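Internal tracking record. Fields below are filled automatically when a chain is submitted to the structure queue. Please do not edit lines marked as system-generated. If the sequence contains nonstandard residues, flag them in the REMARKS field before resubmitting.
Queue: standard
Priority: normal
Entity type: single polypeptide chain
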Amino acid sequence: MDKVLIVDDDEQLLLILTEILAKYKQKFETVAVKNGFEAIQELQQHKFALVVSDLYMPRINGLVLLSYMSKNFPHIPCIIMTGHGTSEMRDRLEKKATSYIQKPFAVTELADLILETLGQEQNLLGTMDGVSITGFLKLVESESMTCLCEIQSEKGETGYLVFEGGTLNNAFYDNLRGQEAAVELFKMDRIKIKFRKPPRKKFPRKITKSIKSLLREAVES
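SYSTEM-GENERATED OUTPUT FOLLOWS
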């Protein structure tokens, strides 16, 4: 079950959103918090598939939250709710967030956007279960794939690999990023893989070594 984190300092709106979105409980679960600080605490403790956040909030606002997510949880897409839809702000949000929704909006409109963003059916490119990491990497390279891959071990450990045109650009595992994370993920065997279309936001390239070199490090370490 996908879990969606909703962040807004307007407690009345937050209550309305959670009550109406509850009718979608067969498709996703919602967790509501009142500011960016509480959102960061939730992100550190639980796994979320999507964040829906207000833009202007006390303590930590939506832009600061987006910057934190970009650095620490770049695989999680975000929808920004804003009543300040200037063209300059839209351009800024499009670089950081998956999408945004203009206030006031109908909750059903937000629900449709949530379902579209989660989009397992339209964004899921394929799954592989019980395969070796080396076999999967050969497939990605040979097909020059651009995708975001969720890697899960038999013990339930989860990480992410980001490919662009068959090249490994970045990796995320526990508190590790880049090449260190990739090496740890390459140590896993008999893994389950879900590979999806990447979010619209760009992932910075943090890996310069070849996949072959990183696989060798995984074997030797």
